[in-house]
Amino acid sequence: MKKQMPTSDFVPQGGTSPGKQKKIETVANLTEKLAKAKSVVFADYRGLKHKQLEDVRKVLKKLQSELVIVKNRLLLRSLGEKSKGAESSLNEPTAALFSYEDEVAPIKELLKYFKTSGAGKAKGGFLGTTALTQSEVERLAALPARKELLSQLAGQLQAPLSGLHYALSWNINKLVWGLNAVKEQKGAN
Question: What is the dihedral of CA 138, 139, 142, 144, to 10 degrees?
């Protein structure tokens, strides 16, 4: 006959079991990460080995982001009101990417890693408070980097000014060329 362990050894004085307490702490931790994150992406990480997950975590850490393997129900609890936009994405094993600085660069890096390894895929996420589908996450990752976008914007803002400058200086240039032609013509005589 097996000796039964008394249940009082497993239940703390407060009345919650250690497993439940750990879940409460996990939800609080996830809620804190969600509040700090500028963007969150949910990914299916199946097919990646532990070593590969560690490698991608190291790369993402350099980009001020974090990849966490989470239980779907705990993540839904931590999302609170935003969970309605994420329920369809949270149905299989899930890794959550929390981006704290740049919203897009970590997403690009994660999807690039998934593509090179041949495993894993984005399932959805949030950009700020806006829910994203899988296709929207992939389109977001296809955008150029922030610096490239800013330089393109600066170039487009500068283009009309350059055109105006050339248009205004054209008549003066034409006058100068005409005067130089007259001067050369008189100098040749």
Answer: -140
